[in-house]
Every structure is written in structure tokens, then in C-alpha cells.
Amino acid sequence: MSIEFPIKYFEGNLVFSQDGSCWAYYQLAGYNYDFLADDEKDMIFTKIKAFFWQINLDTHLLVVPSFQSIHEKHERFKAKLFGSLKEASVKHTDDAAVQLERMLGKEGTEYRFYIGVKLLKPDGTKKKASILQDIKEAWKEFIGGVNEASGLDVPEILEDEINRYRKAERRVFNKVSTRLGAEPVTEEDIQWLVRRNWYRSIGKAPIIKNWSPAYSVKYTEYKEGGMTVRRPLYHDVLRLSEGLVDDSPKRSLVLKQMHEGEEVEGHVAFLTIANVPYELQFPGEEWMYVIQNLDFPVEISVRTETMDNRKALSAIRNKQKELKDQDRHARETGNDTGLNVLEGRQEAHELEAHLQKSRMPLIKTSIILAISAADEDELKRRCDTVKDMYQDMMFQVEQPYGDQWLAFNEFLPGAKRYIKDYVHFMEPATVAGSMFGATKQLGDGEGFFIGSTGILDQPVYIMPNRAAQGIRGTKTNALSAAFLGSLGGGKSFSANLITYLSVLSGGKALVIDPKGERGNWKDDLYDLGDQVNIISLSTKPEDKGRLDPFSIHHDIKEAETLALDILTFLTGVRLDDSERFPKLTQAVREVAEGEKPCLSKVVQTLLSNEDKTARQLGEHIRSFSELSFAPLLFGDGENDSAINLQTALNVLQIQNLELPAPDTPQEKYNLSEMLSVAMMLPISSFALKFIHSDRRIFKTVLLDEAWAVLNTSQGSHLATRLVRAGRAMNAGIYFVTQNANDLLDEKLKNNIGMKFAFRSTDPTEIENVLSLLNLKNTEYNASTLRELQNGQCLFQDITGRVGVVAINALFKDLFDAFDTRPPIEDLTQNGDMIPDGKLPIDGLKPIDIEKPKKEGVFI
């Protein structure tokens, strides 16, 4: 069957068709859906319904899979790498690409959402000079149509007409942007939307870079009226359809392309929706969104025309007359009226009443699905799966014989409806209930790999500094992140992995390790070479005073503030304590203004004071300063050497801390626990100093056991300063904590971007986690959190989308380096020790392929 290629010309997001119409195309970013409560889903439903109620123009909805080449994605990321570790980062990126291709195949699938709107033909605004000019213009239009029909000439496009369509497009864009959050496509997007049709199940469609039909037009100036006419080189646009299409199977098509010198085949079948149920349940039967639950990609093309309320009522009444005549004819001939006629009459009456009451329009809709596969058998299996899925929702699905080529062309932008046998009249609510634009995709789509999501195991990539770039569609500009969950779920592992990959990509990091779990990194993270600095603070004389506020901060005011934070926490002195707080403040200020200030001198100043209350404060503080690791905090002003953070990855360890359990009330802390929590304050303040270094470099501060800081008023204030300064200084603060309640303060919550929530079983904690994610505490959301496996988390990206991600380090050396489980003595059947002394964690252990350490062979 011969069909004329429907596209005459395109420019910007405008597509000019051969039939004289013009379409404007837009892309939707996609929105989160699965974890929304019913009332939140209703809000989205209402916005989409309002769009189709008000647009009053023909539309073309497209849901198409974009086959993302893993190799090309990693190559693009390599071009952005920099820093002293660039060579190691390039090698890791290449290794990761090969490993992912082994696990997931060479291409991943991401769904994209497009909507085309047919623009009304604008009225001419240029006043004709005379009747003679009118005649000339009419004659030129007639001759142009004859030449076009005969193939002697190509059609012409007036420059003035393009400009008028641009004005019409801007009015449409306001509606599309407001209701659907869509953005105009680029010419490269349109080129891809055309070319991809000939590459289904063959490979990624090649794109001609820096090419536009506008580069290939001839301009002719007409003297009469001075009008500029564009004469597009039609064959330049037509070459986007390169490829052979064989329609001999009749119920499918065979596509053929030359790939690497060989002819490669792809098979595609088009299914049409022959009947749509009169009533669809919402939420629950989102008939476009459901395709993302399949383990293979499916495309959807939906074409709509709006029938206003008056015309809709007229059509319904005509249909009623037709059904009434059929009913009367059956009775007159002595036959029983068919059930379909009786049901049709009832539905027509109900619809008429509804139309009269609501004043809504009807949407004339046709729906086509495209399924592709590498061979006929797989194509048949996939078609049967799609048919069964839709038939379970009471949709009637057909695979039309002989119309496959027509259906193929309906997916092209700017094309018209070629198959008119499967048209349905729908309410705007039925179209809106499809949840066009809802997505399961997560992450930034670029950067480094952290895990996979969904039934298709789509790879998830992130760029940790992307939120601050002001990219449209992001819901936050915060660079900080939260890692939540109970013990053993994988929160420390994932925080370690992302921090490491950020450093490898050109950033710097400071890891606060109060439990001493990362002392192995110097040896295990061999790709970083000498860029790993393990700073282990101990009770040795050389470490005395290294966390003294006056050693950390050269600015006296900063040091005073931190000293007061520490001492008020240790003594329990409140700001409104008019007797003790002034004396403590006076002692700190007196020491700060003297020579070689330190906390020990503050204690001495209080003890030497004649005031009884001041001496009691001094005795109270001295009781802490005499503990074994207290010299770290209470320096003497003589040996307070600064901590050097010149390397890319710095780990600050204090193994002697005796942190209390997270749920222990502060009033029940013993002396060691009080001092241990107090030690986290200068450490956090030290992190604040770290992030004020080079603003051009992305910096990460990983704050393990963050609850120890966040559970105090001083620490909470310091954490807020950290995240706010981090956003300005190109730094992200990574909070690793078991309790989401620690982060629910609005000042802190609103400054956290990415969130990783691992398994939790406590109902109160689940409620807090969902609140932090801005999700409602529905049974679905709560059960998802409870049933997460080790290594799986509920991930919220910077666009606000939420989904389950399985974190994967890909390589065994990284898995072992970040594994924080204690060694377990276990024996093999022969009585030998397990080599690494640890048992595997489900979901975190990578594929076990041997990888010698230095050579970089893949596991």
C-alpha cells in the first residue's frame, strides 16, 4: 500500500504536514505515580482531564521507548571527568560499561512521552494591496497545488505563515505547560521520532548531528508584496525514512537495515483497541501506564479530536434514533432485540443525561499499540501478553490484517489518522485515566551507575551535583542526601559507594567514621592510590587538642560559638539560665581574648573564679575532661596541630567514642556517652570548614551515625548550617542515620535532595520515613518499606520521583571495601574458614567473576 510521506518540513517544534496542517510537539518530563495516595492521584487526573476538556484541538499522544546505549552513556560521562583521578575514573567507567552490558544487555529502555497539538490555521494578517494581488495569490496557490500533485514541484511555505504558526504555538504552549508540564521538543527530537520507526528491534536510530531542514531551503523573494517563500528540499526530509519495510506477513511488518555491513531484521506488529469499556476504575486501570509493568517495551500512539458538547449531544441523539430503529425493526419482524442494542440504548440515554448536566465535550479517540521483537516467535509471545493484559481490563484488542503499514505511519509526527475503523468516543476522564506521562524511571539519566530499578532492570545513574545546576524539572536545588534504615539494610554501603564514585569523578570527600569501620580503605580502594587519607584520632600525645574548637577555627568568633555549644551540651546549661550561662560565656570570651586559647584554659578560668557557681561549672566540665579520649577535645594550646585534608578522600576516625543507642534519652547518657556525643559537634564544625574550600570542586561530607549530632539542639543547628553552606559552596552533606525523625525539622528537611530509605519495620519509623519523602502513609507505601530486601531502598531523586532501587557496586573489590559487617567465623564442609570471613548479603553481592586487583578484570 502506497502512502505519501506525511512530513513536508519541520522547524523548531513545528511540523508541517503534506496535507497543509501544522503540528506543535512537546515532551513531558514524566512524573512519579506509584507511591502517591489516591487523593494525590486524583489531583493529577483532574489536571489532565481539564487539559482535554479545554484544548479543543486535535492531539497526538506518543509513548515511545528510548533505547539507551550503555556504552554511549558512559562515553558521555567520561567526557565530563576531570581531576587527579581522571585516569582511574575513565578506567572504572569503561569497566562498569562492560559489566552492565553483561548483566543487562547493551541497551537499556527508558520511556519518553510526547504530545503533538494540531494548530488552527492562522488567518492572514497582511492586507492585500489590491484585487489584482488577490488574483495573483490565488493563481499561485492553484499552480502550486497542481505542481505538487503532479510531482513537478515541491510545495512552498510562506515565511509569514511560519511566523503566524509560531504565535499560535505560544498560546498552545501555555496550556500544555500549565496542565502537563511539557516543554517544546527540538529539531533533533523530531528527527529521532521519525527515524526510530525504521529501527525497531534493530538498534538505536542514528541521528544526523547539526542537521535541520532549515539548512536546506531555497529562499525566493517575490517582488509583489515583498513576501519571502521557503521551498523545502523535500528529499532531505524524506531521507529520514531510510530502511526497507516488508508488509507481506499482513499482520506484522519486517524491517530491514544495514548494520555494520550486514542486513539486520526487526519485526513489529501493531495492535488496535477495538472497544474500550464504558466505565474504567480509577485509580487501578491506568490503561497507558500499565505497559511499564511488562518486561519488554511497548509503544502507544493515541490520536484525539475534540467534539464540543453541542455536537456530542447531536451525535448521541442520532445514535439513539439508530438503535431505536433497530429495536423497532426487530419487534416488527417478530425477533428478539439483541442484547447489544438494548445495552446500547441504555448507555446512550445515560450518556445524554451526563452530557446535558456536565456540559463536557467528547473525545474522538483511536489507540494503536506497537510491539517489536527480533524474531517472529518472540513477537507473537509479546503480542499475546499485551492482548491478555488489556483483555483483563475488558478492552477488546485486534491485530488488523493488511493495515499494518497504515498503523506504522500513524506513529510519525505530523501524520494523520489513517485507520478509521477503531474510533471511540470517550469522556475526557477516560483519556485522563490512562495516566499519560506517569513514569517508573529514576535518577538523572547521566553520571555514574548506582543500581537498577523496575521489572526491566533499568540502570539508575546520578550526578550528585546536578541539583544545584538549575535544570528545569528538578524539585530541589539541595545537594545533601539522607540514608535511612535499620541495621544491616545497606544504608552505610550505599553512602560509601556514592561518596567513592563522587571522589573518583573529580570531587573531594570527608567521611566522619565514629565506629572505625573504614580503616581498610587505604589498601582496598587501590584505584585512588595516595589520594586516601585515614586520620585516626587517638589518645596519643600527638593528637591532643586536634578537635579543640580553638584549633579547628582560626576565626575567634567561630571558635567561641563552637566552644559554647560543646560546654552547654556537657553541662546542660540553657540559654535562659540567667545565673550559669553568663558565667560560662564570660569564661570562654576571656580565654578567647588571651594567648593560645583552648578548652582546658576555660576549665581553669572557671575553677579559679571566686564565684561558687562558676567553680561548680568548672568541676562539672573537668569531670569530662579527665576521660581517656578527652584530650582530643581539651587541648592545652601548645600541641594543637591542624588536620590536613589535601587529599581527595579523607576519613576521620575516632574509634574510642562510646555512642549511646539512638533511642536512649539524653538524660540517661553516662559520662562517656555525653562526651562522645559532644565530640561529634567539633567534628561537624570541622566539616563546615572543609566545605568552604575550592567552590569549583564538588565536595561530599559523609556523616555516619548522624543522629549523634542531630539529637542535640546545638548539633541540629550546626547540621542546618552545614546543608545551607553546602548548597552555596558546591557540597553535599550525606546523613546516615537510623531515625528519620532526626531529619524532619523543616529547616533541615527542605534542604535535603536525594533520599535513600532502606528497610524499616517499626510503624512509627515507617511513618517518619514516608513523611521525609513527602509520601502519605498508605498501606502500599508502608508495606513496600517493610518488605525491602537487603540492598534495596526506596529512592527519591531530585525530580521528586520515587521507586525501589537495588544498589549494586558491580565489582567485588568495592563490595568488600564497603562491607561494614563484622567478620563471621564460619566453616566450609571441609572444616576450612570462609576466605573473606563474611557471608553474602542478598542484593548487594555482585556477580562472582574473578577480578585480579590491579588489572581491572571484571567480576
UniProtKB/TrEMBL annotation:
Keywords attached to this Swiss-Prot or TrEMBL record, sorted alphabetically, are: ATP-binding, Nucleotide-binding, Plasmid
**What domain of life is recorded for the organism?**
Bacteria
Q: Which GO terms describe its molecular function?
A: ATP binding
Q: Output this protein's name.
A: ATP-binding protein
Taxonomic lineage per UniProt?
Bacteria, Bacillati, Bacillota, Bacilli, Bacillales
